[in-house]
Write a structure and sequence with these properties.
mainly alpha
Length: about 250
């Protein structure tokens, strides 16, 4: 029986139907997150650019705004380290005003170092910077679990931390772009287009996260499993750190 037929017979809305059917399965959310995190271990560097995109970047010269806009959006949507950090940042944020504030701070941070890093040719070893990015995920998961208040008796400034880690996220991307030696001709317009694409991709990723979180928060399971979910988020951060440090040692 189709969803449309069920709606007509019961008179319930699609949102009500989804909420009802997800409620009994909400305990699966941390499990699904764990499965996604397990897949991370087999991935390449979080800021790596696909080989086809890499070749395109290296070959073109001049201004290509649409192309770099697309590449920026693609990078953010597929950049699991960004998504994990954003998930941690908005995990307990309910008001759109607060979400906008934190996401804006993150965007200011990574935009600043990405643009400045590439334009002035300032890069950091990609393994080191990606390990720090993994640390940002661990930090946010521990923050969500209230670890700093229990361990040290104080709460770090979450807004300042979001901005600072945003700077590191941007530097990670800048380091990769520098390796691909983008042509000087049209560099600044292309970088600006890429950054706009990153912000568009960030909004798309954030929208998907908020939809999923919105359904989950409507269930009693959310508060029961929030701690577990952040434990898994922390574990994913440690996986990223270990992966990058191992690459640093053997490279």
């Amino acid at each position: 029986m189709t969803r449309e037929i069920l709606s007509k017979r019961t008179g319930e809305s699609t949102l009500t139907w989804l909420t009802h059917h997800l409620r009994g399965r909400a305990f699966l959310m941390p499990v699904l997150m764990l499965a996604a995190f397990a897949a991370i271990a087999g991935e390449a560097s979080a800021h790596a650019v696909a080989e086809g995109d890499k070749g395109y970047i290296q070959e073109i010269t001049g201004v290509h705004l649409i192309s770099f806009l697309y590449l920026g959006a693609k990078h953010m949507v597929t950049g699991y380290d960004h998504i994990l950090f954003l998930l941690g940042v908005i995990f307990f944020l309910y008001r759109l005003k607060n979400i906008a504030t934190y996401v804006s701070l993150f965007a200011i941070g990574h935009s600043t170092t990405m643009l400045a890093g590439v334009f002035f040719g300032v890069g950091i070893n990609s393994y080191v910077i990606d390990a720090i990015i993994g640390l940002s995920v661990v930090y946010k998961a521990l923050d969500n679990m209230g670890a700093y208040q229990r361990w040290f008796g104080f709460q770090p400034n979450t807004k300042a931390a979001t901005l600072v880690f945003g700077l590191f996220h941007g530097m990670g991307l800048a380091s990769k772009i520098i390796d691909y030696e983008i042509a000087e001709d049209g560099l600044l317009p292309n970088l600006l287009a890429f950054n706009v694409g990153v912000e568009i991709g960030q909004l798309l990723a954030l929208g998907a996260i908020l939809i999923v979180m919105g359904f989950w928060r409507r269930t009693p399971s959310f508060l029961r499993h929030a701690y577990t979910a952040n434990m898994l988020l922390m574990a994913a951060g440690f996986v990223l750190i270990g992966y990058q440090l191992t690459g640093l040692i053997i490279s």
